[in-house]
Amino acid sequence: MRSRPTADRRRPWRILLASVISTLLLLPVASGLVAILLPSFGFMPAIGGEVFTLAPWRALWAEPGLWRASLLSLFTGLSSAAISFALAMLLLAAGRSWIRRVLERLLAPLVAVPHIALAVGLVFLIMPSGWLARLLSPWASGWERPPAYAFPNDGDGLALILGLVVKETPFLLLVALAALPQVKERQRLRMALSLGYHPTTAWLKAVLPDLARRLRLPLFAVVAYGVSNVEMAIILGPSTPPTLPVLILEWFNDPDLTRRFLGSAAAVLQLGLVGLALLIWHLAGQAGWRLWRHLASDGGRQSGKTAVLAGLYGGQGTLVLLSMLSLASLLVWSFAASWRFPAALPDWGAETWIRHGDGLLRITATTVALAAASSLLALLLSLAALESEAVGRKEAGGRGALLILAVPLLVPQIAFLFGGAVLAAQVGLLGVWPVLLWGHLLFVLPYVYLALAGPYRGLDPRYAAMAASLGKSRLSVFLKVKLPLLKRPVLTAAAIGVAVSVALYLPSVLLGGGRFVTLASEAVTLSSGGDRRLLAVTALLQAAVPLLALWLAAFCAKTRMTAP
Amino acid sequence: MSKMAGLELREFCLFLKGEALFRPLTISVEPGEVAAITGPSGCGKSSLLLALAGLLEKPFRIAGEALLDGRPLNGLAAEARHMGLIFQDPLLLPHLNVGQNLAFGLPRRRAAKRGERWHLIEEALRQIRLEGFAKRDPASLSGGQRARVALMRSFLSEPRALLLDEPFASLDPDLRKEMRRFLADLLAARQLPALLVTHDREDAEALARQRFLLKKER
Q1: What CA–CA distance (Å, rounded) separates B186 from B176?
Q2: Cα–Cα distance between A446 and A235 in angstroms, integer?
Q3: How far is CA A192 from CA B38, B67, B167, in A?
Q4: Could you give phi then psi for residue A71, rounded to 5 degrees?
């Protein structure tokens, strides 16, 4: 009889796998950071920086608008995260009525819509000649011409905050919904209601504190993204000055290569800014935690007035409406032939689709190929890691694994991706497909792993034990027992991977070296003054790919597999 | 019709998808008395308690009448019923310490000031023989200690009746005996009617004067 390898003999494979994953995630981040840290002190021999100096930092401090740009990043990132968190939590707290169920269903697909597509749709909706102004004109507003207000791209970043809130609230809501069973929401609510608590107060006092602790990592990711995002800030944010990440990208893209020293110093500052934002968030969370503990045991049982609850539902309803109208406005603009203000609807035509069909097809094909390849690779690596963890009986979901996965999500992309691009250029690998794929995998892998880890670890081990006792090999158990049982989560994780990849902007721009154009990079380019109809088509396609992937995953999950 | 103190069910029944879960139940539990409900799994014992607490969700439908101290319960919101509910899981809140968990049950109208509240909490801890445990993490308590805290938290909310859903199922035999005595003393001292759902014959025999076997309708 053939002996099975013992856990000890499999150990080298587990170590190798863990090393490969850590290398995939940590090495690019670490080397990218080094590659901006050195130029920030004047050292970049390729463009003449051969001595260490503080000149880039002096130039940075002297840059007009730097402080305002930094404060704008901090303010928009922190306030959008706080508003999104409050809206998502209050929606969950405000009873378990049909409204909550309807909102949940409407918000869920919005998570898959990329930031850029939603931001473009929002611009089409709220700009002076946007759909909202048209729908109100001239009968309610009296406007015969587009009004002269500066929104979006207002100086205080309010439109950027709105865009981030519209995008991040559904994300936090869905993450919270997934975590609710772990905090025994239903049981705790029943307990608190039997003690005389109003349902909303019961939720806020008995469920929220524990839930908030479990949402720490997703919230950190939301804060980090809010403070350091480039694409939404370009589309919705202020321009004089823009937020710090946009300034950094401008300096990196400057034809004057010496501006890269300045950009590198600013990227290090951006890293510090994200650190500061996370620290502020953490400290505010700790203070809120203490206050909440006191409030939770003060015996108060009544909730806010009905008007407050109505306001909450109203706020959520507005959010859903804004999102839906944003997507609808993409569709309308994409089929607009001519559209004079204040007409509510355009003269219809498919000229943009037809005229740009070939180009769009090429860009969509590049986007889909990148998304499919990175998602498939991430899926294979995640499955291998989880299977290895299951065989090793080792709880790899501990802090170490989580931290490694969190690194690319928490460290600002602009900070390390530029360094990565510089390194890639030095070894002649800039604009090479595998490097671009690696850049995507860096962000796709954590999401795919996190989406798959819960269901994989929750799989009843007795199924595998039963199959093994029937003489099945490990590979056979994995392929014929585990995979079919995990079909739905595996397909969903793959679709999530596609959605993450399609949404990525900076990796495509910085690592693509101008040779690869994706829907994300094309949409951002067009957003700064390009053809609105083409922008709408591009953004619409960008939104359609992940939605299609999710639909396909749901469809395939329903289809029964035939066992050989 | 005379107003009766205590908990009364008249032809009380639950329906799921148009079918009755059990035969209509008529029970009268006087203050300080315990009635035990037993029956096979899935016959609706726990759902009955949830229905009385006002926590049963759709698609269940309720028929018959439930009265507490002569007041009809049907249609009242859960938080207005004053029905204490104890589960097998003590459900102590992990974000609060033991004292704060007890304070979670204590209404503000009974004690609004911090000092006043802590005085009552310390008194409650003494009653459950956990003096000095106020600042402890609930996770550091034994199963029996947690069950006592959960029970006292419910008593502090001043319920008018108690609904017990297999409250001792996870305890070992010695602890069960101790908890039964403890519960009986508290119910007698506060003159509360209680409905106990249990699979355990000893629990039913030791605590309940009346015992009802819930039978499936079909």
Answers
A1: 15
A2: 26
A3: 26, 22, 17
A4: -65, -40
pLDDT band at A308 (very low <50, low <70, confident <90, very high): low
Would strands B194-197 and B34-38 be described as parallel, antiparallel, or unpaired?
A: parallel
Window A:263-322, CB contacts with B under 8 Å: 289, 292-293, 296-301
Give A299's contacts in chain B (Cβ within 8 Å).
Answer: 103-104, 106-112, 117
Q: What is the pLDDT of residues A28-62, one digit of tens each?
A: 888 889 989 999 999 988 888 899 999 999 999 99
Counting Cα atoms < 13 Å in the Cβ hemisphere of A101 gives: 3
Q: How many CB pairs under 8 A join A and B?
A: 89
Tell me how far apart the alpha carbons of residues A294 and A292 are, in angstroms, rounded to a whole number: 5
Q: Distances in Å between the alpha carbon of B41 and those of A93, A225, B27, B63?
A: 33, 50, 21, 21
Residue A299 has its nearest CB partner, among B83, B94, B108, at B108
ipTM of the complex: 0.91
The answer to whether the beta carbons of residues B204 and B36 sit under 8 Å apart is yes
What separation, in Å, do the N-terminal and C-terminal C-alpha atoms of chain A show? 25
Check if A209 contacts B (Cβ < 8 Å): yes
Tokens matching residue A478: 């994995």
Exposure letters B88-104 (e unless 16+ CB within 10 A, then b): bbbbbbebbbbbbbbbb
Nearest C-alpha in B relative to A289: B95
A497 neighbors A447 (Cβ within 8 angstroms):
yes
Determine whether the interchain pair A299/B107 forms a contact, defined as Cβ–Cβ distance below 8 Å.
yes
Query: Measured between beta carbons, which residues in chain A are less than 8 angstroms from residue B104?
Result: 192, 195, 205-206, 296-297, 299
What's the rounded Cα separation, in Å, for the pair B154 and B162? 8
> CA angle, corner A193, sides to A192 and A195, nearest 5?
65
> Is residue A342 reached through a cis peptide bond, with omega within 30 degrees of 0 on the bond before it?
yes
**A11 CB contacts (<8 Å, ≥6 apart)?**
A392
The tens digit of pLDDT for each residue in A225-236 reads: 999 999 999 999
**CA A13 from centre of chain:** 32
The two structure tokens encoding residue A180 = 């609710």
Partners of B63 in the beta sheet?
B13
Q: Please tell me the distance from the alpha carbon of residue A543 to that of residue A334, in angstroms, as a whole number.
A: 13
